Amino acid sequence: xxxLRQDYAQFVARDTxxxxxxxxxxxxxxxxxxxxxxxxxxxxxxxxxxxxLYGQEVNLFKLGRMxxxxxxxxxxxxxxxxxxxxxxxxxxxxxxxALIDGLND
Length: 105
Prior knowledge:
CATH topology: Glutaredoxin
Number of helices: 5
CATH architecture: 3-Layer(aba) Sandwich
Strand order of the largest sheet: 1-2
Largest sheet: 2 strands, parallel
CATH class: Alpha Beta
Shape: globular
Number of strands: 6
Number of domains: 1
Helix content: 25-40%
Low-confidence stretches: none
C-alpha cells in the first residue's frame, strides 16, 4: 500500500479511484486505515465476497490472500487483472498508470 500512497496523486490526476480490499473485519480495517492515514478507499472483506467475485487466490502457505490488482472501467468492466504468486508480486504503479492512460485515449 506504500506504493499506492507514493503515487496516489498521479491516480487522482487521472480521475481514478483507488480501492484496496482487505481480509480484515471492519473494525480492524478501519483502525489500520486511520493509523496509517491512507488517502484512498479501504473496503473490509472479512467474508471474502469480493475475493470470490474476482477470483483472488488464497494460499495459506504464503500467509493468506495473494495480491491482486484489477482495473475496472467507468462502466464496471474489468479491463485488466494481475494475480500475484507471492506477496511481492505486484505491478509497478507506472504499469497501472500506463494502462489507465490507454483506457482514457
